[in-house]
C-alpha cells in the first residue's frame, strides 16, 4: 500500500454510486505477477454518527481492479459522522498488504477552496505534492474532495491552453459544455472558434547549400552564366515565412562581379571574369524574411574559384564504399558521409605556393535504391527517405559520381565502370532488428510411436521460423501445458512430464518406458519464442501405435532423395485422403532374402482420422488409397511408388535368454570340433614316432649278443638324426630305385627297411675288406669276421661321398676312407645267391638289397 491510512470525504448532496476516493498499492513485479486486487476485509464502523441507523453494513463498495471506493447508499441532509474500515490488496499468488480507510461526511462550510492558476490537467500531475506539503505544514490530514475549472462570479469560466501554441498557427474550434447540479441535471453546449496567429520568431535557414562552400567556375564563363542557386526556408507562417535574397556589399568589392535573383536565389556572372586579375571571389549571401514588425535574416559565405578551362574532374581513391543502415529507423536519423575525393586542380599549376581546396558535388547516377536514399550534393551525407525493411530487401547498391559542376546533374548510368575514377560504388546493407516473431510452420503437429521404442527416443520435431537473422532469429521451444491423455489404457502410472522437448532443436523425446498394454494418444501445447520474448504456439498430438496400424510404401528413391521432398509427399497424400498423415520412419529397402537395395526406400506412415483423432486401421487406409488412386497417380509417378502394403514384422528379435542359449551352444560345438582335431593330431604324431623308435632300436647285424649298437661307431641312441646310417638320406641310391617295385613284391608283407635287412641275412654272407697302406704300399684281406668289419669301419665314417657303387655284374663293394695320413680301403664281398633260371630280375633285386644290408 502506498499509505497505511487513506482518508476521504463527501457531502450529502452527492449521488448513489459516486466515487469518493481511491486506494493504491504498488507491486514491483511485472506482468501477471504485478496484478493487484482490492477487497474490503472488515465491517464498516460508524463513529460520531447521526441519522445513519438505517444503513446496511455494506455502505461502501470497492472496485476490485482500480481500488476506487464508491458510495453504496443515498446520503440525507441530517446525516453526520465518519466511517472506518480496512482494505486488503493482494496479487495472484496471495501476497498481500492492508490499510485503514477513513471517510468523512462533510458540510459545505467545512471545506476550503483553493483557486490556482493551473488547468485541471496540470494540477492533476502534481496534486499529491500539493496535498502532502500542505499537510506537513499545517499538521493536519488533508483530504481532496474535488477539483474543477474555476467559475467567475458572473458564471463565466476561464479556459487556458494546456500547452504552448508555438508552431500551431491556424483556426481551431473548441466545444464547451456547461451543466448544473440540479435534478435532473441540465446542460448546454457551445462552439468557440479560436484563431492562432503567427509571430515572426524564426530566422530563415539555408538548405541549399546548407553551409559555407567553395564553388569552381571556368574562367571563360559568359555573363549571365549560373554560378550557384541558394535556397532558404522559414518555419514561420504567412508573410513571416516569405524569404528574399541579396548579396552583402563587402569591402572587397567581389560582389560587383556577380548578381543574385532576390526571389529564386540564383547567382549569375555579372561581368567577365579575369583569372589573372582575380582567382578567388568571396561572397556573402543574405536570406531575409518579410516579417513584421522586424525582419529576420541569415548569412551564407561562398567562395568562387576561377579555374582553367581544361579542368580535371575530382577522383575517388577507391571503387567501393560500404555503409549499413538499421531497418525500421525513421528517415534522416542515420547519416553517413561518403569518401572524399582528390582533385588535380586543388593547387594552382602556375603558382604552386597558392593552394586552394575545393569541394566537389556528389550525385546519385545509378543503382537499385535511388528512391530510398538521399545524397546531399554539398555535404556528401547519405541518408534514407523512408524506413527500410530488411525482410523485404537486405542490401542495395548505389552509383555516385563526383563532379565540379554542381548545377548540372550527370546522366544516369546502368553499370559501374571501375576505370572511371569519378564514380563510386556504394554498397548499402540493412541491419536487422528483432521485429518478427517466430512462426510455427504448422498450427498442429502430429507424430506417433510404438510400444517397442526405448526411453529417450526422439518421437518427432516441431519447427518455427523467424524471419530475422543472427541472434534475433534464435528460437527456443517449451512445453507450456500439461500432457493430456485421451482414449488411453495402461497409462495411469505415467507422470505429467511424459515427454520432453529439446529447447534448441524442438525435438520431442519419450520420457517413459512404453509397455505392451498401453494405448491412446497424447496432446499438449508447445511455445516457440525468440530472444526478445516474441512467441508463437502450436498443438502437438502423439499417438501410441501398433505395428499393424502402419502402412509401408516402397519407393524407387534413395533415402537422401526422399528426404528432400518428404513433406510434399505427406501433404499431398493428406489432402487427397482427407486424413492426417504422420511419418514414422524411412530406411533403405530390405529384400525378403535379407539383402538390401540401395536404390529403394521403405517409408512407414500411419493415418489419423481428423474427426475423432483416432488411428485408422491399415485396411481402411488401403481402401481409402484405392478409392483415390486416380488422384494419386501423378504423386506415385513422381515418387516412383512401387508397393503399398501393410507393415509386417520382417525380423525376429530373440529374447536375452535365447541369445545366451544360442551363444552357449555355438561355443560348445566349437570346443568339440577343436577337441577332435587335437586327438587326431596326437594319434598321427604317435604313429609317426612309434615307427621312428622301432627303426632306431632294431639291431642291424643279427642278434644283440653278437653286435650291440654301442659297439658300432656313431650309432649311439642319443646321437642326432643322420649319425646312424639307417637315417642317411643324403645320397640317391639310383640302382636301388630301379628295382624297388620288384623288391616290394618279393617282400613278405612287412615294409620296414630294418626288418628286410634282418630277414635277408644268411650264413652264406661273406665280407671282403682291404686297407691301403702309406707310401704306395697296399694289401688286401678277405674275411667273414664281423669284428674285422667293425675294425674297418672304425677307421672312418662311411658317408655317401666315399661309397663306390658296383656295376650289376660285380659282386663286391669297396668302401674307402681317406684322411691326411693314410688311405684305408675296405672291400666287402657279398656272395649272391644263385640266380633262379625262371626269374633272373628278382634275384638281382634281392642281391642288391642284401648288398645294402651289408653296407649298413
From TrEMBL:
Residues 743-785, 836-856 are annotated as: Disordered. It is found in: Membrane. Gene3D superfamilies: Cadherins. One of its GO terms (cellular component) is cell-cell junction. Residues 87-206, 209-316, 317-440, 456-561 form the Cadherin domain. Keywords: Calcium, Cell adhesion, Disulfide bond, EGF-like domain, Glycoprotein, Membrane, Repeat, Transmembrane, Transmembrane helix. Coiled coil: none annotated. This is Cadherin domain-containing protein. It comes from Medioppia subpectinata. The lineage of its organism: Eukaryota, Metazoa, Ecdysozoa, Arthropoda, Chelicerata.
